[in-house]
Amino acid sequence: MAGTLRARPFRTGAAYVRSLDCMICGEAYPPEEAEYVCPKHGHEGILDVTYDYARMAEEVSREEIAASRNATMWRYRPLLPIPAGTEVPPLRVGWTPLYRADRLARDLGLRHVWIKDDGQQPTASLKDRASAMAVVQARARRAEVITTASSGNAAAALSGLCASVGQPNVIFVPEAAPPAKIAQVLAFGSTVMLVEGTYDEAFELCLRFAERYGWYNRNTGFNPYMSEGKKTVSYEICEQLGWEAPDAVVVSVGDGCILGGVHKGFHDLYEMGWIGNVPRLIGVQAQGSAYLAEAWAHNEEVATKPPIPAHTVADSINVGLPRDRMKAMRAVRATDGGFVTVLDQAILEMIPHVARLSGVFAEPAGATAFAGLHEALRRRLVAPDERVVVLNTGNGLKDITGVQRALVAAHRQPLRIAPDAESMPEMVGN
Q: Which of 24, 201, 256, 389 would you label with 109, given CA atoms 20 to 30 Å apart?
């Protein structure tokens, strides 16, 4: 398979997979008998990959992982559900930096804040983790085409990972997606279907085409293995903190797959005895796209809660019906966490604010988490002396139009100067 890295000969986590369990009815399926969803519930019966943690803990150690010289998400291959001997894409996905952000912490009135910057991924978003897993799963199944629906980041991620191995793919994108993200997908050579409708409509269209033509479906909240790729961000956080979990992790939420994956990663490590606690998870949604926050506040059942109208400047989390809503809600409830909502204005204000205080450049969806940390602190969901990690899910260059709006609102504009050096000292001094 040209353009890929040959798999290392040691074991993979596939041997520890016990079953795929329906999030609605609990029905457990052997891995070889389930592909995407529980047939009892149509497209809504999302499955959860479950493991034999006792056996995994006996046969895999933290020391083995720490000794790995593989600085990608595949350093956790012994814990991941991929077939032995499977080749992985060559792009360097994972092992993104965890920055201590003391200036940002002081600004918030907190003592310990870290930023996990997944804007440093190959296509500049956390979605590369899931797409790398999708490519591995699809290639193991000898799929001719991989497909997904996306508002931009998942599209770019799948497109880039497929380009790295020469894998044909078809991407369904709503016409409102940022032009920079569409350009990225086109540059990678994907077949792009620009849907004259919303993300939710693009998602349904993608499902129909995948079923019709037998394409491998990467869609969030439909393919259970996407959480298994995204959970590696939690593995990294714990290892980078010396195998100590933080007290709280703040995550922006759209479809819910990232939040669900973050929880799954911490849960795995806790069940194996590698960490002493599972952090409280704080999900942050834009007020205009607050399906899960509303459901949490009113104790609603997300399996039956209907879609809501959604609109926010943070396109990556602009979702009327979160597809991985059950895993996202479980993540918050199981960790005694919570959901908060923030205004679009607060999201935009956070982009230059966080950049100035930390050097991390976030797109609107990433900045949403930082705005949410302010709100979580105000609502006492986070205490001043706790150890808090904020997850930046995407780089600011992914949506430069949104960033420009944020800079205008913050009155951050260049100073105009004549080609006369003599005026410089006075201008700088002012």
A: 256
